[in-house]
Write a structure and sequence with these properties.
The chain has 464 residues and is of the alpha/beta class. The chain contains ten helices and 21 strands. Helix 1 packs parallel to helix 10 and helix 3 packs across helix 10. Bound molecules: flavin-adenine dinucleotide (FAD).
Length: 464
């Protein structure tokens, strides 16, 4: 093991949005900063490189955001999705500070564009990154370099030594050698633990082995576990995570947003026994795709099958992988390795339960529903009857886990006995301090940006 005397004041663990915001802020306060990123350079940026937008409060038009979006409306939106399991003080603080983040992000190289039109209008609430999260991450790395921040890639942190309530050292691997450094302050921004499938299975049971991980394979929670084992206070429930239903053929890791499937509202979804299990038309898809992550997780082998007919195909965004196609429903069931009799029975009953479809409207809750079957389909219920027929598999795609490090409004970590003098956390790794369950689109980047900047400033104040 090599011991390195570091001349860095602040070590930042991780190389995504939260880490970069922290590093740039600390560097602007005169700190010598080192980022330790476990991924190689080409994979730098964690889940942040998959993102598209950031949710921002504003009193009037701000950059690409139209009209206004005030604190109370933003908070009400958050409460709706988290069912009240939210730390109100921290959530409101993040919301208020999001407004100053947008110009700060622009000043640090991020370019925004108006939201794309789609089923859900976000033009007022979410600012979209031109070039997506990858462009944001690249811009931040360039700005960080100009500020003198040093970055080591392929440098996973293995251990942060807590000496009572102070970080004594940080151990990481690089070039096949283990190094130990003693910075004055440390900021942890290394994401959740979702890419550690064993840990996920400990929390969820064996079903978790069939989950797909939508983002980086590098967020394995190594530092999170290491700190919790040494008495750092945790927050959140290990079974809580953001999970959505995605294309079952997506890669195990890092499929990103292109693996999203939007066919469910216009489909009949069955499990591997050929049985329906939930109302496919409960609400518009952006409001329901997170629910379907958990619904699919509860089915045998954690898989679902969405079946549509030719009339539905133009109604949703094309998928990255082409669907299975067949001229008859029997042939489709066979091709999808589903029990043919079971599927035929389910779809015949479903078709017979569809009534008048003249009010069918694909982009509104149209109330076109089934009668007399359980579960009902309460919108967009049209018979699956026009060949050719198409099928997609659905699997649970985990975005990020909520178990994390408990922090206060200064982003500072603690043990049962009090604050840890020189340790701060930002981003997904502490998001559980705010969100108990559920998720609001664009709030992850808001948490990371606000807390990253706070952590960078607090670490710099401490060192000074
Ligand atoms: C497909 C997808 C789309 C998303 N879209 C959005 C969106 O549009 N808007 C939004 O707000 N949120 C979105 N999210 C959620 C979003 O990614 C996060 O909330 C946010 O980017 C998290 O930033 P972070 O810096 O905390 O984590 P990350 O960006 O994941 O960064 C964590 C970093 O830590 C590094 N790391 C991990 N372990 C170690 C270790 N031991 N040592 C050193 N480094 C380590 C990783 O390599 C990585 O660079 C999306 C997520 C996914 C997967």
């Amino acid at each position: 093991m090599a011991s390195r005397k570091t001349d860095h004041d602040v070590v930042v663990v991780g190389g995504g949005n939260a880490a970069l915001c922290a590093a740039m802020t600390a560097a602007e306060s005169g700190m010598k900063v080192l980022i330790l990123e476990s991924a190689p350079q080409s994979y730098r940026g964690g889940n942040s490189r998959h993102t598209r937008n950031f949710r921002c409060m504003h009193d009037g038009p701000l950059s690409v955001l139209v009209e206004s979006y005030d604190e109370d409306e933003y908070f009400a939106d958050l409460i709706k999705v988290t069912d009240g399991r939210t730390d109100e003080d921290l959530a409101r603080m993040v919301i208020r500070r999001s407004e100053e983040c947008l110009p700060w992000m622009e000043a640090h190289g991020v370019r925004f564009q108006p939201s794309l039109s789609g089923t859900l209008s976000l033009a007022r609430t979410n600012a979209f990154f031109m070039g997506g999260g990858k462009a944001l991450v690249n811009a931040y790395y360039r700005t960080a370099a100009a500020l003198g921040v040093d970055v080591l890639y392929d440098a996973p942190v293995r251990h942060i030594q807590l000496d009572r309530r102070k970080v004594a050292s940080v151990r990481y691997d690089h070039d096949g050698v283990s190094h130990t450094v003693q910075p004055r302050a440390v900021i942890v921004a290394s994401g959740g633990f979702q890419a550690d499938i064993d840990w996920l299975a400990d929390a969820w049971g064996p079903a978790a082995r069939n989950f797909l991980i939508r983002g980086t394979p590098y967020n394995r929670g190594t530092v999170l576990r290491n700190l919790l084992d040494q008495g750092a206070q945790s927050v959140g429930d290990p079974t809580q995570c953001h999970a959505v239903a995605i294309d079952g053929r997506a890669p195990k890791f890092d499929g990103g947003i292109v693996t999203r499937l939007d066919c469910v509202p216009f489909s009949v979804v069955v499990n591997k026994n050929g049985d329906r299990f939930y109302d496919e038309g409960e609400d518009v898809w952006p409001k329901r795709y997170a629910i379907w992550g958990r619904l699919v997780a509860a089915q045998p082998d954690q898989i679902g099958y969405a079946i549509v007919d030719s009339r539905a195909i133009p109604l949703f965004m094309p998928s990255v992988f082409p669907p299975v196609r067949a001229n008859t429903l029997e042939e489709l069931a066979q091709k999808m390795e589903l029990p043919v009799d079971g599927v035929m029975k389910t779809i015949s009953r479903f078709n017979a339960a569809c009534g008048d479809t003249s009010a069918f409207h694909p982009t509104e809750l149209d109330g076109v529903r089934t009668q007399g079957i359980e579960p009902a389909k309460t919108n967009w219920a049209r018979p699956i009857s026009e060949p050719p027929f198409y099928g997609y598999t659905l699997r649970t795609g985990v975005t990020f886990t909520y178990l994390g490090l408990k922090v206060d409004e200064n982003a500072q970590c603690r043990t049962e006995d009090g604050l840890i003098e020189n340790l701060w956390a930002a981003g997904e790794t502490m998001a559980g301090s705010i969100l108990g369950q559920g998720y609001l689109a664009g709030y992850g980047m808001t948490i990371g940006t606000v807390f990253g900047r706070i952590a960078g400033q607090e670490a710099a104040n401490y060192v000074r």
